[in-house]
Amino acid sequence: MTTTRAGSAVASLRLAVRRALVALPAPVREAPVVVGCSGGADSLALTLAAAAELPGRVTAAIVDHGLQEGSAARSAALAADLGARGVPAGVHPVVVGGPGGLEAAARRARYAALLAARPAPDCPVLLGHTLDDQAETVLLGLGRGSGPRSIAGMRPWDPPWARPLLGVRRATTRAACAELGATAWDDPHNDDPRFTRVRLRREVLPLLEDVLAGGVAEALVRTAAQLREDGDVLDALAGELLAAARLPEGGLRAATLSPAPQAVRRRALREWLLTSGVRDLTDLHLRAVDDLVGRWRGQGGVALPGGLDLVRRDGRLSLHRAEPPPVG
Known about the structure:
This protein is of the alpha/beta class. It has 13 helices and ten strands. Helix content is 51%, strand content 12%. Strand 5 and strand 6 form a beta hairpin.
């Protein structure tokens, strides 16, 4: 699906949209569709291809992050252009702020706005992430040692987010825009070397392609797909283990957890902690928690983010609010 011969790029994108929708659950498949459109080639091509494939069912949501001069006028012009092409479009201004740096804050604000733009709970939101984006995501996860979940990349369907273009190269989206006579906007942030992903795109991946004689992006994406398949099996096993280990009062039975393989056990513990309200878990946290089961020697509890302690008493794991330090 990377061919860009004249007249073929739009057809490739429409086929990608068609296949993505067929794979969705029935209520989602039949609902109105929202496409997140920034005006860049990927999201613009996706919006126009989806509108052609699903006439009358597609609305574009344009998120104005307000991070660049003229962003409001540019967003309004994009909405007007899409409207002239028969695609209803709304502009959603957001305020970017909070922890984690500019990229993370912008992503949180954008996703919240796209969620709010859905006319109904079953509506999917189509995102323009391409094969190239997926390869960058896998490489980032690999370089940061973030574990198999990160290296497995983005899912084609992660409710309510659908990513029809994960098998499509950026060159195809640009070719589709050219075929349609649509002018894409090149975000200056996409060329700013202050951002790690930009340097991966501009420096690291081209070098890898040169050294390894091509095919690196596709290979990374195949690796991600294989890891997702393996991860789905491990998650299912972890879900069964977690259900068996749960206690009526909300804790976990250590004796049920301890015989399980470590990879399955850690996934079960991770799911339990996340659903219990623990956030910002690191691999170090999770391994310390797992030691209370797999390497139990009577050690003390584990301090977790959010002011929580995990303790083991009488063969049971339980979460407690951490005791405040004594005054004086």
